[in-house]
Amino acid sequence: MEKVLELISKEVGDAFEAAGYDRELGRATISNRPDLCEYQCNGAMAGAKKYGKAPFIIADEVAAKLQDNPAFEKVESVKPGFLNIVLSGDFVRSYIVKMLHEKRFGISLPGHEPTVILDYGGANVAKPLHVGHLRPAIIGEAVKRILKYTGNKVIGDIHMGDWGLQMGLVITELKRRKPELPYFDPDFTGAYPKEPPFTIQELAEIYPVASAKSKEDEAYKNEAMEATKRVQDGDRAYRAIWHHIMNVSLPDLKKNYDSLDVHFDLWKGESDVHNVIPGMVEYFKQHNYAHVSQGALVVDVADEKDAKEMPPCIILKSDGAALYATTDLATIQERMREYHPDAIYYFTDKRQALHFEQVFRTAKKTKLVMPETDLRFVGNGTMNGADGKPFKTREGGVMHLESLVQEINDKMYERVKQSNPDMPDDEARSTANKVALSALKYGDLSNQPAKDYVFDIDKFISFEGDTGPYILYTMVRIKSILKKYETEGGNVKEAKLGNPENEAMKNLMLLLTRFADAIEGAAKDLAPNRVCGYIYDLSNAFNSFYHGTKILTEADADKKESYIALLAITLKILETSIDLLGFSAPERM
Question: Could you tell me which CATH number the domain at 4-87 has?
Answer without folding.
Answer: 3.30.1360.70
